[in-house]
UniProtKB/TrEMBL annotation:
Transglutaminase-like domain: residues covered: 225-296
Gene3D superfamilies: 3.10.620.30
SUPFAM superfamilies per the UniProt record, alphabetical: Cysteine proteinases (SSF54001)
Database matches in InterPro entries: Papain-like_cys_pep_sf (IPR038765), Transglutaminase-like (IPR002931)
Domain of life: Bacteria
Source species: Roseibacillus persicicus
Protein name according to UniProt: Transglutaminase
Length: 366
């Protein structure tokens, strides 16, 4: 295929705050209306609980991403990679890249940190680019316990709370079919039910009734996942978060990778696997962010309670960005949306042919 200009977007499909910056654009009138009508959870319904947080391990992570097209003549490559944020689960010391990248933000209400790497199509870069992203972080384990924490429980500002309650294309909890499903399943918070009690009840029910399924092309909207009764880690996390938000409980997806190196030749359901994963957390007043991993519960917890992965995070995971759907300024092709950014997304302007296009990825942790 001969083309005078070229747009390519390749990103790790599951490639798939503390320090998140809120956007200045605000919410639409429809979103404002939805947020204003959400139920309010009274304070004081989570007494007797606390989060026990301890350092787990320090990690230095390297994402390698190589792309080549021998017949391509690039003018400029535009790469984006997630800039890992500091969160209750991690304190990030540095994020840098080679070639050098600059700090950027996604064009959305929650302006997530990104690395923007612009590579001129000079010399060998006309045909290929070898990208490295380095992240250093202290990880923390978090466990929901009965008792009092030695640390003061965190609070959310009103803007932070609104961001963690907002509806979206993925978190489409206002959709009539989803509202009907919530009522049919009993996923409506009782008057005296705190965030922890409600989340536990929902988690147990979902873990016992849903199944895990992964394929290269999936739709992960909450309305679709609830109808199918199955999804992967991203879809199951989206569903849990959507249920929480529908009841006025702040919640968010954590998209990243396990803090261990990819194994050569490892695959998941026949698709190359580089430790990508998505989990979630919800905010309980007087306690803080409570971690949950629904896909692991669905796949590995066969106990009667189904609570092994509720409120228990061993601190072996690096979050690269919060929530799906990032809007990225490509500089040549307008703003483009992608769902997950655990790897690298790129666009290239130039000419030539696409025949022979190859990408290679790796994830190393020490």
């Amino acid at each position: 295929m001969n083309i005078p200009s070229l747009l390519i977007l390749l990103s790790c499909f599951l490639a798939m705050g503390c320090t998140e910056r809120l956007g200045a654009s605000g919410f639409s009138d429809e979103e404002e209306k939805i947020l204003s009508e959400l139920p309010k959870v009274p304070v004081g319904l989570n007494s007797g609980y606390a989060i026990e947080r301890r350092p787990s391990e320090k990690v230095d992570c390297k994402l390698s991403y190589q792309v080549s097209a021998p017949s391509l003549v690039a003018d400029e490559w535009i790469f984006y990679a997630a800039h890992a944020p500091s969160l209750p689960s991690q304190e990030v010391s540095h994020v840098k890249s080679n070639p050098h990248g600059q700090l950027a933000f996604s064009s959305s209400v929650l302006q997530r940190k990104l690395l923007l790497i612009r590579v001129p199509g000079e010399g060998g870069a006309q045909h290929a680019v070898d990208l490295r992203v380095f992240t250093g972080a202290q990880l923390f384990s978090r466990k929901l316990i009965q008792g009092k924490s030695q640390e003061k429980a965190p609070t959310l500002s009103e803007p932070e709370k609104r961001v963690a309650l907002r509806p979206s294309e993925m978190f489409d909890y206002p959709a009539p079919p989803f509202v009907v499903w919530l009522k049919e399943k009993g996923y409506v918070r009782a008057k005296a039910e705190g965030e922890i009690g409600f989340a536990r009840r929902v988690f147990q029910s979902l873990a016992g009734s849903f199944s895990y399924e992964y394929s290269e092309q999936m739709e992960r909207q909450a309305t679709r996942v609830c109808r199918l009764g199955k999804s992967d880690c991203g879809g199951l996390s989206v569903l849990f978060v959507a249920i929480m938000r529908s009841q006025g409980i702040p919640a968010r997806c954590l998209s990243g990778r396990w803090a261990q190196s990819a194994e050569p030749g490892e695959s998941l359901h026949g698709i190359a696997y580089y430790q990508s994963h998505v989990k979630a957390e919800f905010f309980a007043q007087g306690v803080g962010w409570v971690p949950v991993d629904l896909s692991l519960a669905v796949s590995y917890d066969l106990s009667s309670e189904r609570l092994k992965f509720f409120g228990d995070d061993p601190g072996d995971f690096l979050t690269l960005h919060v929530d799906p759907t990032l809007s990225l300024d490509t500089h040549h092709f307008g703003v483009q949306k992608i769902d997950w950014l655990q790897g690298a997304a790129f666009w290239v302007k130039g000419g030539g042919k696409l025949e022979g296009l190859k990408t290679k990825e790796n994830w190393e942790v020490r």
